[in-house]
Structure formats: structure tokens, C-alpha cells
Amino acid sequence: MAESNNKKIAVISMVRNDLFFISKWVKYYGLQFGEENLYLVLDGHDQTLPRDHEKINVIKVPHKKLSRTRGDRNRAKLVSNLAKSLFCRYDIVIAHDIDEFLVVDPNTNQSLAEYLQKPIHSSSLSALGLDVAQHLELEQPIDHSRPFLEQRSFAHVSSRYTKPVVATAPIRWGSGFHRIKGRNF
Fold it and tell me: pTM to 2 decimals?
């Protein structure tokens, strides 16, 4: 775990009806930043608590049936407000979809936690978005007992997934975290 003089980092995601990625999200970000710094918003009181919920912060909110577009906007607003409230305790807040994982270029020989300790001179950072997918002719279906990326060798570079997910100050994310309202990123 990071020393006390290091930047304190929180990670937020919101989910409905997905247990597969929650456990991967908790494991990955928990190892990077400590499970006590993870904030998982469950969309609906009918949602089952994830298996690995004991040390993370779980917030259940009432489910509101909305179109996909309105739902994405609603989620971005809710997460933006939560992130804003966390800046009194954290220096950086990462917010993204549950199936998105922020990874530093392995050639830097740094973990994500180490990378984010460097000076950041903007209110947000984004990563190059890669949509990892199964090559149906060359790859088998996912084996849940093995690491995900060990089983996938193909990805599509996508500006759609190049999102400003790292915030160093309160910001208002747009629908799906694809943009920041009122600012370039």
C-alpha cells in the first residue's frame, strides 16, 4: 500500500446485473489502491452484494428504469457527484465502467499506482482505448479461472473508449464517461 505522503486515489464504478466483472474489478484495483478506496455503486436495491464486498465501499441506489442514453447520463451525473464529494479525502478519483481496466504501458515498468504519483498538470487524464475482443477462429471462450488478458490477443483501437477517466479535481463527466462537460480533455 502507498505511503501516507503519496497521492491518495479512489476508484468508482456503477453496475447493474454484472457479477463477472465486479470480482475482477475489486481484485485489480484493490491490489493497486487498497480495497477500502474502491466505491461500487449498485444500481438497484434488488442487486446482490458482490462476493468480494467486505472491504470495499458499496452504495446501493434505487434503480430508475431509463433508456440507455438517459441511463448513461444519469449514471455520469451520479458518479460525478460522488467523485466531487470524495475530493475532500482523495487527490485523484478514477471513474469508469465496470468492464474497463486502466493499465499503464508495460514498457514503463510501473504499476498504475506508481504512474499516478507523478505530477499531473490537468484536471483529467485519459488512456488510449482498446476494445479487447475474442477472435472467434483463433481463441476459445473465456475460462473464468484464468487471467482475462492471458486469453485474448486481439483488440481494436477506439476513440470511443479513449475516455477521461482519471480526475485530479472535481469534474462533470458526460454520458458514459466519454467526455467532460464544459471542457476539452
Answer: 0.88
